[in-house]
Amino acid sequence: MTQIDRRGFLTTSSLALIGLAVDGSAGAGAAAADEPVIDIHQHVGYAGRADDALVAHQRAMGVTTTILLPAGRSVRTPSTHDGVSNGLQAQCLGNEACFQLVAAHAKAYVSGANEVPDLDEAVPEIERYLKRGAVLIGEQKFGVECDSPAMQKIYQLAQAYRVPVLMHWQLDMYNYGFERFGTMLAKYPRVNFIGHAQTWWANIDRKHTPQAGLYPKGPVTPGGLTDRYLSDYPNIYGDLSAGSGLNALTRDEDFTRDFLKRHQSKLLYGSDCTDVAGAGPTCQGAQTIAALRRLAGSKRIERKLLHDNAKTLFRF
Ligand SMILES: [Zn+2]
Ligand SMILES: [Zn+2]
Q1: What is the pTM (predicted TM-score) of this model?
Q2: pLDDT band, residue 316 (cuts 50/70/90)
């Protein structure tokens, strides 16, 4: 019995090693120098994760530069759903915590700047951190109309500092009026916007309906609103992070191969994952990297998605 158990164990661990090598998770550190990866979407304090666990997670994934996205301050307003969405609804910390981590890990980390957009302090608070070197505004994840006066002040600030704005689109919860967003893309042609989250990714499908839920499965019909925004406006980009991004990549791989090719200069790798492993089945960020390597169609496009597009957009 002992022998069989031992052989069983050895077989399992060998398969595990092969699995890691095949999906690119193993040896990520060794590949880092040759193939840098920019993760445009991570958080400090995410679901209570410690800073050293975040740093280890990013290293395990093979990420060489990480953009930290701060939360706004904690307040009870309609725009935070009376406090429900403080900490980006996931215990994420704010500007100061992100800048402290950047200071402790120079070069490997940069930060965004953020605030609850409809507070009087929003513009001065965000501007303070843009002056300190924040590379974008976000993650904007608040219950506000996407074309409200408050949000337009955010877009004008982004224009003045030439930084992108990253927005979490979630039906009836965060950034209302996705169907009207084209008016903002046209009104602020010099602002680069980055779309993220469930409603953004569900709308790759022309046949998407709200009844299909936030993580729709199955075949995708090209020409959804997100697909059209990416085609029609040069100033909108897609953030591939989170379960929503991974779901969009994996639900219809034939569609995905074509989608990645058509929008190869407009899509950006991000992880947005809360785990501590940085590899394997619990790490959605590592699975997204593996999916992009499998579906990109060429090394050139793969490198654009994992690194080059972000390098061009952010200029750091
Ligand atoms: Zn996030
Ligand atoms: Zn992860």
Answers
A1: 0.90
A2: confident
